[in-house]
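Researcher: For the record, we're logging two predictions in this thread. I'll number them. Prediction 1 follows.
Model: Prediction 1, sequence and structure:
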Amino acid sequence: MKMSKNVRLLTQLALLTALMLVMANTFLGYIRVGVLNMSLLTVPLAIGAMLCGPAAGAWLGFVFGMTSFFSAINGSGGLTNLAFQYSPVLCFVMCVGARVLCGLLVGLIYRGLSAAMPRRPKLCCVLSGLSAPLLNTILFMGSMVAFFYNMDFVQEKVAQLGAANPLMFIILTVGAQGALEAVICTVISAAVTVPLKKVLKQ
């Protein structure tokens, strides 16, 4: 029974990993908005974290982060490309570390909500799905500010936006893009996870 469950979890994780890689290499994964990329990879991350748990969320966050890091290396990552030129190590932490933590936290949030509200599975999925894009934005942009805020390429963007402080820089940079990303991820991840959990009898 335990082996069957492990096989099922690994199969789900493999499918979500494959989906994430396909999305990352098509227009579905990253949609360029100015110097930033609006990412829909938080959708499979959220689904995996809710279906398979925090460790699976961390793994999918790692896959997500690596696709972002490779975008920084090949020059298609906008601000991340400039960050990579300044410090590859800090860029790796920003791209990968932030996403691993995001996936882990989404899984923990869902687990906590499910324990607190066992009779409200749909609400648990909606709130957990919402947490994925929010945490992704907070952790990624927080890392950007922590590591690169004083760099010339960020200060040029700060001047363009007229941001008075780092928090305002994050708000103005993310803007409507972040809200749209949050809505899309929340709706799709909840719409997929709720019926899947019923079918899988989780």
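Researcher: Logged. Prediction 2.
Model: Prediction 2, sequence and structure:
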Amino acid sequence: MQILEAEINLREETRVTQQAKSATEAKAYSQHAGELSSAQNKLDERVVALGGKIRDLPDGETEFAYEIGLLGKVSEVMSDATEILGRPETGGPAIAAETEAIELLLQSRRINPGGGGGGGANPGGGGGGKTLDSALALLGGGMNEKEVREDHGVSQSSGESGPALPEEYRAGLDEYFNKLDKSGGGQ
């Protein structure tokens, strides 16, 4: 799940980098794309290591053959993404490769509604059922069943306007306006 979350974050950072590309100097863009490529390579190494750990489990090759095969596919796609980002390219091909890796990672872990907590020789209660609910349902900060939400009616006292922009747009716009201010174009 940590690899999945890191890949999602990397894809978002790739999108932001692509959106800010026109406002970024070529050297800075290439350097940032190289950093993204390095981060993608580290995730690929983690996937390969995870596959090795699964193989090392008792009966890992037979019990987790599907997951091992899927992790092999994830590694291939992540290698492609590493290469694409290293060109440097943060547009459609890079984002598509990262998205494919995310989709494959989501396939590798399914929610088992019959499995409960617990440990011992058969952790999770050994539910034998399968479901098509993806691990996407597991993402997020979780739920607090005893949480009570209250609207206190507090709003900004100034500068309040329409809905806030998504984070990926804000970072790109901030960089754009900072560069515009530095070049004297904002006067």
